[in-house]
């Protein structure tokens, strides 16, 4: 006996009539009658005694009730478990760049957590060492697309770069004067922006080399030199932008481990990130 047959059988037993069962199950009267006849034929015994006043359980039918109720209990437990699994709850591990975390994601996080109070996030900004294929994070918002792995990827926006600094240094730079530049530590020499700065320095050392954009933005803010910053970060400093066009852009990619793409909590965070980047696309593009 399967659950479809069991629930019809129990409904008739409890209602004492086909009509009452049909109303409870929101089924047609003929459908309920056919289900009972089919079940009796399959079992080879009468389950009900038909009376003018309604349907009463036969001895065989009464003996079947505990088995049908066990199926009912199992079906309800399965439904409750599926409902719990569909809730947005638990921890999601997000890997992203420190600048995206600090300037875009964290300010908007109350909106996400207000919508899903049982959700929590673990954000790793050491993105270069985080591998989704080894399940070190559930999803990532990154500036470089993965070339392989069991992941899905989606390009969300394009980030522009500009040269930012104090008003005096920007004015001098715009006049063609040689001014100090802030650069990247040698460990980050492979970055697109690091290579651009190295070419621009033409053999000169940077006035300061760091490993983070936030440190470079702060150094530019206090007048140490000019920094090449993503426009969304540079404009947030309140510093003027030099006229020089870097010609540099980078894409922002949403990367999700394929095995987790349909998990409700991961889908909720991914949707939040898509909406957030869409809201700030003009700022990101520069």
CATH fold-level label of the largest domain = D-Maltodextrin-Binding Protein, domain 2
Identify the CATH architecture of the largest domain: 3-Layer(aba) Sandwich
Mean pLDDT: 87
- Following the backbone from N to C, one meets helices and strands in this order, namely HHHEEHEHEEEHEHEHEHEHH
Supply the CATH superfamily name of the largest domain: Periplasmic binding protein-like II
Please state the CA-atom Rg, rounded to the nearest Å.
32 Å
Domains, number: 3
Low-confidence stretches: none
What does this protein look like?
This protein has 286 residues and is α/β, with parallel strands linked by helices. It has 3 domains: 3-86, Arc Repressor Mutant, subunit A, CATH 1.10.10; 90-154 and 252-280, D-Maltodextrin-Binding Protein, domain 2 (3-Layer(aba) Sandwich), CATH 3.40.190.10; 159-250, Periplasmic binding protein-like II (D-Maltodextrin-Binding Protein, domain 2). The chain has helices spanning 3-15, 18-25, 29-43, 59-86, 98-115, 167-174, 192-201, 213-221, 231-237, 264-279, 281-285, and strands spanning 48-51, 54-57, 90-96, 119-124, 139-142, 151-164, 182-184, 208-210, 227-230, 241-257. The longest helix has 28 residues, at 59-86. The chain is rod-shaped.
């Amino acid at each position: 006996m399967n659950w479809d047959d069991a629930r019809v059988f129990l409904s008739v037993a409890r209602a004492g009539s086909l009509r009452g069962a049909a109303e409870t199950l929101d089924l047609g009267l003929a459908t309920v009658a056919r289900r009972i006849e089919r079940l009796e034929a399959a079992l080879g015994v009468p389950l009900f005694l038909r009376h003018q006043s309604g349907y009463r359980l036969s001895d065989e039918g009464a003996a079947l009730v505990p088995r049908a109720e066990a199926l009912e209990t199992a079906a309800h437990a399965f439904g409750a478990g599926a409902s719990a699994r569909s809730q947005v709850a638990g921890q999601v591990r997000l890997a992203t760049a420190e600048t995206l975390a600090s300037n875009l994601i964290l300010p908007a996080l109350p909106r996400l957590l207000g919508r899903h109070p049982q959700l929590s996030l673990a954000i790793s900004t050491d993105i270069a060492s985080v591998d989704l294929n080894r399940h070190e994070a559930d999803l990532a918002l990154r500036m470089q697309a993965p070339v392989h792995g069991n992941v899905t990827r989606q390009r969300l926006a394009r980030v522009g770069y500009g040269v930012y600094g104090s008003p005096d240094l920007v004015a001098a730079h715009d006049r063609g004067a040689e001014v100090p530049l802030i650069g990247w530590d040698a460990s980050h020499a492979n970055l697109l922006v690091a290579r651009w700065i190295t070419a621009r320095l033409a053999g000169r050392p940077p006035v300061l080399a760091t490993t983070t954009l936030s440190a470079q933005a702060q150094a530019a803010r206090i007048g140490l030199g000019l920094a090449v910053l993503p426009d969304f970060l540079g404009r947030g400093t309140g510093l003027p932008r030099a006229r020089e066009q870097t010609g540099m852009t980078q894409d922002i990619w949403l990367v999700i481990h394929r095995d987790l793409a349909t998990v409700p909590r991961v889908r909720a965070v991914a949707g939040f990130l898509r909406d957030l980047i869409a809201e700030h696309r003009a700022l990101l593009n520069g």
